[in-house]
Write a structure and sequence with these properties.
Blueprint: E1 5-7, E2 10-12, E3 16-19, H1 26-36, E4 40-44, E5 69-73, H2 80-93, E6 99-102, H3 115-127, E7 131-136, H4 140-149, E8 153-156, H5 170-179, E9 185-187, H6 193-201, E10 206-209, H7 211-214, H8 219-239
Parallel strand pairs: 3-4, 3-10, 4-5, 6-7, 7-8, 9-10
Antiparallel strand pairs: 1-2
Helix pairs in contact: 1-8, 2-3, 3-4, 4-5, 6-8
């Protein structure tokens, strides 16, 4: 089946997007990415060396751009100006790469998105030719505003970054999925494989995760579990689940024509 995730005109066979932070070292990062099957990997420009720090280990030696789509992100930015400057730097470091992940945070404790600053930054970046994947609140109105600005993908949180709390508001996610025409990718809050499956069963186009894999007791095994969870959830959504029938039993075997009846 040619069931691709298409972002900014490029097709991907994997619907799992993976972060590259919080691992023991770059070797473990690469092993986890391989196990996950992810083709798009996010890089926190303000926290990870991709060439700006000469003489230090370089992530690009382990995840070369000719093998993966590197998605620079603005983790740690709290204003639109910070985020725009960071992604301009990323474009220089990555030879003009235009696909980026925008996140502008409201505070250092919750890491909840600052939506006014996110909208401001998205507007500037789209006008400068960036293909923006925007981390946002699970607010269908503001998600639609990001799409109208021209973002390439909308990335609502399932719950707070790094919390592992899973999808706390499936109803809002369903509203976003229903109204948005660009890919909707759950970003933040996934804790285990079932969370990823639920996101996909809701109709999300993909899931981005980092802490759920990197902070597992066995990151490599968890990465493999997440790969299978995404695939199972997508298959279930495409298959179409049976309708829910409150208080009405429906036996799996027919009750007529039984032997001896």
């Amino acid at each position: 089946m040619n069931d691709f995730l298409t972002i900014a005109g490029k097709n991907y066979s994997s619907r799992l997007l993976a972060g590259t932070g919080k691992y023991q070292d770059f070797a473990q990062t690469r092993a986890a990415i391989d196990a996950s099957g992810a083709q798009i990997v996010t890089v926190a420009i303000r926290r990870t060396n991709i060439g700006q720090n000469a003489g230090e280990p370089n992530l690009l030696d382990f995840l070369p751009p000719d093998q993966f789509t590197l998605l620079p992100n603005t983790a740690g930015c709290f204003t639109a100006d910070e985020a725009v400057r960071t992604l301009r730097l990323a474009r220089e470091l990555l030879d003009g790469a235009a696909l980026v992940k925008l996140e502008v945070l409201g505070d250092a404790q919750s890491l909840y998105p600052n939506m006014p600053e996110t909208l401001k930054a998205a507007n500037i970046l789209v006008k400068e030719g960036f293909q923006v994947m925007a981390y946002c609140a699970d607010d269908p109105i503001q998600a639609k505003m990001l799409e109208d600005i021209g973002c390439a993908a909308i990335m609502p949180l399932a719950s707070l970054i790094g919390s592992g709390m899973g999808i706390l508001n499936p109803w809002n996610l369903a509203l976003i999925i229903e109204r948005i025409n660009v890919p909707v990718i759950v970003d933040a809050g996934v804790g285990t494989a079932s969370d990823a499956t639920i996101a996909m069963e809701l109709g999300c186009d993909g899931v981005l995760m980092n802490t759920a894999i990197a902070h597992a007791k066995d990151p490599i095994r968890m990465a493999g579990a997440m790969k299978k969870a995404i695939e199972a959830g997508r298959d279930a959504w495409l298959a179409g689940r049976m309708p829910k029938k409150a208080y009405i039993a429906d036996p799996s075997s027919p009750l007529t024509g039984l032997i001896g009846s």
